[in-house]
From TrEMBL:
It catalyses: ATP + H2O = ADP + phosphate + H(+). It holds the Pfam family DEAD. The keyword Manganese does not apply. This is ATP-dependent RNA helicase. Residues 111-294 form the Helicase ATP-binding domain. It is an enzyme of class 3 (hydrolase).
């Protein structure tokens, strides 16, 4: 191990340790990076950072590439070092400990604007350090606020960060804790579904925090059921919506509106995401002030994905897909001993089925989805973060924000819910300039999805060889998967595609396709579905369905 590698190893271990210490409460965190600097350029940027023109200069400059020591692409890093920034020396010390030296492009572009107190909507590619970009200036706000009185019963929450998933909330809180290493008086807490409300209530009472990271549903729960919580939220100075476009989706909109109504109008709001579709820009006034700044660090025409990630699609009938998935994985594993693969599936129950199947095929596999208990999700997420030689089969709970280092391949099976979800799932690889690969596996009738991503560099993948032995092996493995899991997968599959605008339009065709899926699991007859469920799906009396 070279000295450099040695140091990185120690830094990583420190990060892992701080993560493990924290894991009882929350989840999160990983890898670090340090860079050498070019003194001349640094001096020039240092003087720019002192001037009020700093931000506009940064914007004009756009991406500045620097050299890479690990063969990765460093376009995500800027030339500005953290120690050139007007933030607390104690935060800088913590940043140094983590191993960050230069700011990423999005951090460099947003920090000066956020420090001025402006509302910001920022778009930056996946895995380029958005979390630190909003946490670092938020911590400054806490530092500058008058400390709460010792006996204050309901000390104000000054910074409220909302994340769409539990994994992401835990991760953001862990990152905040790293930055707060030398700020012992500033506390972070996380509240999220999957843990007992009463436990969180007690924890908040015992350790009142100034920074709260939350998932939307649980935050609402606290607003409605935790004494004094609403009063504490009236202290919010900074509201952050991470994965903002997703939080402003219909699925979360009501919760977010309720949360916005519970925090003061006079506040700073920060919206971050790798994707900000036009519809979201249209409705961002729900959260942002009229004079907010939109900072887009994705250069025009470069697409929203990373050029160092090879993207491919494979179109094959459902009956071949499990064998193809197995062949793809075997090929990848034999190519790369350090393989680390994410397989995204459409629903939790399909995820379980695919994980069962790959397990029967003796692959080293884990699963994460919403039907697993939170303690299990945290444990598996932690294991995958630290491992190599592992496949994680997952639903969309891992689609956004989750920071697993060194993912070598992302496979997406079936229709992603939309273009944005495709980009975020793919973004689990190619983080921090690393290389990666993405394969989208579609059935012929799902090919229409490619139109929505036709500006992205997705090429046709070569069809992997599936010999008769492999096919038999997969069939045998499928026959060992529990029937109840196949039944649940069938029902979930039907539900997912039923709610898809395109596929769900023709119910007769939908049922035919669902039955193809059922056959692909090795079933002769499609499983029966409770009448009530069929009624809710609007599928009563559609031929080809069996009810019970
Ligand atoms: N200045 C920096 N230098 C090196 N590494 C950094 C820096 N800032 C953040 N990182 C690391 O980069 C990784 C990616 O950061 P982060 O998860 O915040 O990305 P993101 O842009 O939020 O991604 P996503 O869009 O997927 O949510 C993390 O491991 C983080 O610790």
């Amino acid at each position: 191990m070279s000295e450099d590698e040695d140091e990185r190893y120690v830094l990583r271990k420190e990060k892992e340790k701080s993560y493990s210490d924290f894991v009882d409460l929350i989840d999160g965190d990983e890898d670090s990076e340090d860079e050498t600097s070019d003194e001349d350029v640094q001096e020039e940027i240092r003087s720019k950072s002192r001037s009020s023109l700093f931000h506009s200069e940064v914007k004009k400059q756009g991406f500045v590439a620097s050299s890479s020591e690990d063969g990765g692409d460093d376009n995500y890093l800027s030339q500005t070092r953290f120690d050139q920034c007007p933030v607390s020396p104690l935060s800088l010390k913590a940043i140094k400990d983590v191993g960050y030296e230069k700011m990423t492009v999005v951090q460099e572009a947003t920090l000066p604007v956020i420090l001025k107190g402006k509302d910001v909507m920022a778009k930056a590619k996946t895995g380029t350090g958005k979390t630190v970009a909003f946490l670092l200036p938020s911590i400054e706000v806490v530092i500058k606020s008058p400390p709460a009185g010792r006996d204050e019963k309901r000390p104000p929450i000054l910074v409220l960060v909302i994340c769409p998933t539990r994994e992401l909330a835990s991760q953001a809180a862990a990152e905040a804790n790293l930055l707060l290493k030398y700020h012992p008086t500033i506390g972070v807490q996380v509240v999220m579904g999957g843990t007992r409300l009463a436990v969180e209530q007690k924890r908040m009472q015992a350790n009142p925090c100034q920074i709260l990271v939350a998932t939307p549903g649980r935050l609402r729960d606290h607003l409605e059921n935790t004494a004094g919580f609403a009063t504490r939220l009236m202290g919010v100075n900074v509201l952050v919506l991470d994965e903002a476009d997703h939080l402003l989706d219909m699925g979360f909109r009501k919760d977010i509106e309720r949360i916005i109504a519970a925090v003061p109008k006079q506040r700073q709001t920060l919206l971050f995401s790798a994707t900000i579709p036009e519809e979201v820009r249209q409705i961002c006034h729900i959260a942002l002030k009229r004079d907010h700044e939109f900072i887009n660090t994705v250069p025009e025409g470069s697409g929203e994905t990373h050029t160092q990630v090879r993207q491919m699609h494979l179109v094959a009938p459902l009956e071949n897909q499990f064998s193809l998935l197995y062949a793809l994985l075997k090929e990848h594993i034999s190519d790369d001993v350090n393989y680390k693969v994410l397989v995204f599936c459409t629903t939790a129950m399909v995820t379980r089925l695919v994980a069962d199947l790959l397990g029967e095929l003796n692959l080293n596999v884990r699963e994460i989805h919403s039907r697993k208990p939170q303690s299990y999700r945290t444990r598996v997420s932690d294991e995958f973060r630290k491992s190599k030689g592992l496949i994680l089969v997952t639903s969309d709970v891992s689609a956004r924000g989750v920071d697993y280092p060194d993912v070598t391949l992302v496979i997406q099976m079936g229709l992603p819910s939309d273009r944005e979800q495709y980009i975020h799932r793919l973004g689990r690889t190619g983080r921090k300039g690393k290389e990666g690969q993405g394969i989208l596996l579609l059935a012929p009738w799902e090919e229409f999805f490619l139109n929505s991503v036709n500006d992205l560099p997705i090429t046709k993948a070569p069809m992997p060889m599936v010999d008769p032995d492999t096919r038999k092996k997969v069939e045998r493995a499928l026959s060992h998967v529990e029937m109840k899991n196949k039944e649940a997968a069938y029902q979930a599959w039907l539900g997912y595609y039923n709610s898809n605008k395109t596929v769900g339009r023709d119910k007769y065709r939908l049922v035919e396709l669902a039955n193809e899926f059922s056959q692909s699991m090795g079933l002769d007859n499609p499983p029966a579905i409770p009448k009530l469920v069929l009624g809710k799906m609007g599928l009563k009396n559609v031929p080809g369905l069996r009810s019970k």
